[in-house]
Amino acid sequence: MNASLISLEISVIGLGLVLMLADLFMPAERRKFLGYAAIAALGVLLLASFAGCGSCSLTGTAFHGAFVNDGLSLFFKRLFIIAAILVLFVAVEFSDRLTAISEYYSLIVFALAGMLFAASANDFAMLFVSIELITITFYVLVSFQRNKLASLEAGVKYLILGALSSAFMIFGIALIWGTTGQLNFTELAAVASQFADSKIFLLGVLLVLVGLGFKIAAFPFQIWAPDVYQGAPTPTTAFLAIGSKAAGFVLLMRFLFSAIPSITHSHALSTMLIIVSGITILYGNLCALPQRNLKRLLAYSSISHAGYLLLGVAALNANGQAAILYYLAGYLFTVLAAFLVIALVLRQLETEDVSGLAGLNQRSPLLAATLTIAMVSLAGIPPLAGFFGKFLLLKSVVEAAQTTGNPGYYCLLFTALVGVVISLYYYFNVVRAIYWSKEPKDVSPIEMSGAAKLTAWLCIAGIFALGLFPNAVLNFALLAVGGLK
Amino acid sequence: MKHELFPWLILFLPLISVAVITLFTLRSKMVSSLISIGAVSASFILTVLFIAANGFHPEVPGDVLNWNWLSIDQLNVDFGLKVDALSLMMTLVVTGVGGLIHIYSYGYMHDDRSLSRFFAKLSLFTFSMLGIVLANNFLMMFIFWELVGISSYLLIGFWFEKPSAGDAAKKAFITNRLGDFGFLFGILMVWGLLHSLNFSELQSGVAAGTVTLGASATIAGLLIFCGAMGKSAQFPLHVWLPDAMEGPTPVSALIHAATMVAAGVYMLCRSLFLFDHGALQVIAYIGGFTSLLAALMAMQQNDIKRIIAYSTLSQLGYMVMVVGLNGPTPAMFHLTTHAFFKALLFLSAGSVIMGMHHEQDIWQMGNLRKKMPITFWTFLIGSLALCGVPPFSGFYSKDSILAQAIDQHNYLLFGIATFVAALTTFYTFRLFFVVFLGKEKSKAAAHAHESPFVMTGPLMVLAVFSVIGGFIGITNNFESQFAHEHESLTMMQQLLEPFHKPIPMCLGLGAVAIGFFAAMSIYKDAETDPLPARLGGLSKAMANRFYFDELYEATVIRLHDFIAAVFDWIDRWILEGGCIGLIRGGTDFTGRALRLMQTGNLQTYAFLFVLGVAVLLYFVL
């Protein structure tokens, strides 16, 4: 066993502990800067993972194969660290509305540690532990605004429904272990095909999928998302939308394509994936139509994006898997750009209504541009990241349709396109509210700190860079999914 | 090849100027005009340096000037530059004559409050025009073709507060679009049949016989010619050019003399290898007909700029005709000399208009020789060159056109061309006598004044080239492009070249003499136009442009309006009301209904969650 494989995770947990301890010694008015310290530390780790120093980018397995470091885990780890850095930026901007801010920072860092473990999970035990690490920190993060009823309500809902889904999942894991006697994905893959006809085994697989479906908010387990997104503090929502979802996807991909590939490629399961993906897209987009609350709107939008991402899973080919990775990278910058603006603009407002954006182009052209670019990218318009990601996903579905000849793929393609058309309406409604609202009530300029400006520019740069120069990330993604089947 | 970066710089300097002016210096007229003039002058100097280093036929290695822009399956679209004698000569004309017009504009437009905007548009136009000239494939040429369309739209409508300018801009743009539509089809046809859009590949392929348009050659050729028909204002799409005179005079000189209208002829010469005999015949007759029609119209116009505009139409007809007679060298030769003397005439006319305080009716002028001596001389030189009096440049180029018609044994077109030469001299000297000689016909004419040096300077430079353009080796360069074997002529040989073919020369000069004496006898000291009384209805028809605009109004535009009304009805009631209304309403309703599921009640949520699990299990197991 090579313990140095988990040096990245150890460093992140260490960082979380240091942040908690520092809270004891730091005077209250300077705790805000702990956030910057955490950002800097994570930045160093990110650079280390790129520069390949230490053992951050080693490949191999540890803990008897339960923990694996490969291209896929490396891709997701970098994604999670970038997400955490940007979320911390948003959190610093949000800090005046939270008590005990340094705990908040350290919880984000602990959730990040859970995600890093999830990226490397190659065993049901590891899968469950990392999911619980993420989810339990999120219970706290969601209900962190203790003086706000909505936040507490969201926390309770997330806790109970989360516990329910965990119960299903652990039951599923138990069934799989009971039938096959395997917990390790690699070993399970070797024997899974023998159990293809075992109903008990299939039941176990489905129940694990229920748990993962809850994480990514896929239909029919999406029901929690709007309430929780709306009630949670904005940085939490942002992290939930990208971090938690991406963790769900990496586990889903490992489970489907690495542990039980023979079952995944069976007719029943692939049909189910097509249907779930299609309904999730439609559900998210249709429900978003009448929404006026920005965070709720983004929650539904996030459900629909889970549906788009499932296109890549349902396609059951390497291009689809790479497209998921690429799409998540673009989605990261886009969603964080949107939540940054929401955190800054709706700071003084009691409501989170779309009308609060009125006159934003006069109050702060940078924020207006950031949100516009984010919305346009979410809608999937070239030359932004969202367009290229959707293009890759749809392309993989077309390939799947051509290779398998399954007409379901064409239906799925059509559904996805209809979803995109519907989504244009509500995304551009937001843009309209920014630029073409009549008589905005408040036209006072919005003060932005240097860090906030930097975050906005980083997000814009990320959205454009991924849209204009997709090759670097795409090649990395193709390499990363090489181990999946 | 030396200085391989230069062609890119030549192309992109004007674009940089557009960006800088529109983004940063709109407020400062002085800086903006300097940037724009600087950009085009720099392009000109770089062109000269490039030619000095590489000659007119540079060896172009591999992909130095080529950048693969788009590659989908078999479709490879390059963004590349083609430098050869044809494009380099044309670049010289565009940047050289264009540069002089830029400088002149600074004087002419000095008091306009939107001077910066004007120069930005001028630079945009120069960029687009250079793009057409330097493009190495049809698609890139088409993109720049459209850019020229849009920038000419902006320039013609520069004074958009005037409704007539706005209408003229729209007319020019839409008429051009009609031609471009055909052009695009032609390009698609070429790509569909020959699988390439690159000029060099096409030319070598056609020459080697590996690819051929076959039976569709005539159709493809005529479709491509549609583009030239629009840009070079050939019948029946000629109607936009006279109206385009609503733009500022330097724009008329730049667009409607030296560059944009020349683009059609240039494109025909560039792709001449694609045209078969049938297509060329049609092109030749359309050109000949246009030149005759426009010359007749010019005889009875009273607006100084419109007379010159019709003369431009007529001369373009010449060029198109001779392209159709398989004579790209005479066409490009005439294009070049025409750029000199027609820009000179337009700019001189601008000087007259400015001296007359924006009066354009020639019957309000008179005796300007005394008041505006420099303009008088430059205008005279321009007129002599236009009529084709030796040894002015127009004489040589027009003579080469007539000679080409004789060589091809097309005596009908030769007759038309000679007749047009007489008409040209007639209307040119009608204009000259009425404006510069005789008595002052208004108070404004009595108080006219000469223009400042920033305007007369470019006039003098253009005048010099209008005189010597015929024998400074322009033909040699074009001949080296189009003819397989040729020998460069010395200056003396060029001077005497027309004497080798005495018949066209004598007939041409005879026509000029007839036209001149007719104009002198009628218009010397005339106070009003005596021609309407003598010609009656014909004169009225000429003055009204043979009622083409009215004809189009009654047929094409009426029909178009009717079709538009029908589609408007279908769109409004069937598509918008029926289809879209139902779909939108249905979608909206579903969204609202689904929202009801989101009750906020935790027990309901948990129930739905478990229900979801049950459905899933039922479905799969």
How do the strands line up in the largest sheet of chain B? 1-2
By helix and strand content of chain B, what is the structural category?
mainly alpha
In spatial order, strands of the major sheet of chain A run 1-2
H/E topology pattern of chain A: HHEEHHHHHHHHHHHHHHHHHH
Distance between the termini of chain A: 26 Å
Helix proportion range of chain B: over 70%
Q: What spatial form of chain A do the alpha-carbon principal axes imply?
A: globular
Low-confidence stretches of chain A: none
Biggest chain-to-chain interface with counts: A-B, 34 and 25 residues
Strand content bin of chain A: under 5%
Regions of chain B with pLDDT < 50 over 5+ consecutive residues? none
DSSP strand tally of chain B: 2
**Could you tell me the radius of gyration of chain B in angstroms?**
28 Å
Radius of gyration of chain A equals 21 Å
Number of strands of chain A: 2
Q: Helicity level of chain A, as a percent range?
A: over 70%
- Supply the number of helical segments of chain B: 27
Q: What's the tally of helices of chain A?
A: 20
Provide mean pLDDT of chain A, rounded: 89
Mean pLDDT of chain B: 85
Overall form of chain B: globular
What does this structure look like?
The complex is a heterodimer of chains A (485) and B (621). Chain A is mostly helical and 485 residues long. Chain A is built from 20 helices and two strands. In chain A, a hairpin with a 4-residue loop joins strand 1 and strand 2. The two termini of chain A are 26 Å apart. Chain B is mostly helical. Chain B has a two-stranded antiparallel sheet with strand order 1-2. In chain B, strand 1 and strand 2 form a beta hairpin. In chain B, helix 5 runs antiparallel to helix 6. Chain B is globular. In chain B, 52% of the residues are buried. At the A-B interface, helix 6, helix 8 and helix 12 of A face helix 26 and helix 27 of B.
